[in-house]
Amino acid sequence: MNSNICRFFSCLFFTALSFSAFAESQRVSAEVAGSCVFARPDDVVLNFGGLTPGQGDRQVIGEVSFSCSKGTHYKVELDNGRYFNQGLGQGRKMGSIKGGDYLPYNLQSSLSSGTGAGEAVLIPLKLSASVRGADYLAIKTGDYSDLVVLKINP
User: Fold this and answer.
1) Domain assignments of the chain as residue spans, ordered by start
2) Is the Cβ–Cβ distance between 73 and 114 less than 8 Å?
3) Is the full-model pTM beyond 0.70?
4) Which domain of life is it from (predicted)?
């Protein structure tokens, strides 16, 4: 009888071992990177149109929108353009398509930095450009342009 009891407990013990569960935990993680994107990837064009010497100072305003991931700190950067060191003095300039002459201008952004509120929340950014009337009194006629790169850096 003792041997039967031993066999029963032995069988019960091995059965309990075969049904026991072993647990192991697994860590799940992710990193969400902050990013900023323009709402429309089209270029912003600030066009002064025809400038007639003697008309005085002119200003144009353009707008672009962007969004940044929630909590992402951003910085707005405008580069110096193509003709920054051309002609007399430093500063942004439009170059003549024919070459040789430059028309100075100022360019300002309505924002310099901030914090994003999420991809669905658009942030409007106004760009304001101006030329002084005195700067186009004595330059050659023709078309003038520059290219400035606008960046939103998270």
Assistant:
1) 36-153
2) yes
3) yes
4) Bacteria
- Written as one letter, the residue type at 113 is S
> Which run of H or E residues covers position 153?
strand 150-153
Taking a C-beta distance cutoff of 8 angstroms, is the pair 127, 46 a contact? yes
The CATH superfamily label for domain 36-153 reads Fimbrial-type adhesion domain (2.60.40.1090)
Q: What confidence tens digit (pLDDT) does each residue in 29-64 have?
A: 999 899 999 998 777 899 999 999 999 999 999 999
Residues forming a β-bridge with 62? 127
Q: What is the DSSP string of 39-65?
A: SS-SPP--------TTS--EEEEEEEE
C-beta separation of 80 from 134 below 8 A: no
Q: Which residue has the tokens 């430059």?
A: 102
The CA distance from 73 to 83, in Å, is: 31
Q: Where are the beta strands (DSSP E) in 27-146?
A: 36-38, 58-68, 73-78, 93-96, 102-104, 106-109, 113-115, 123-131, 144-145
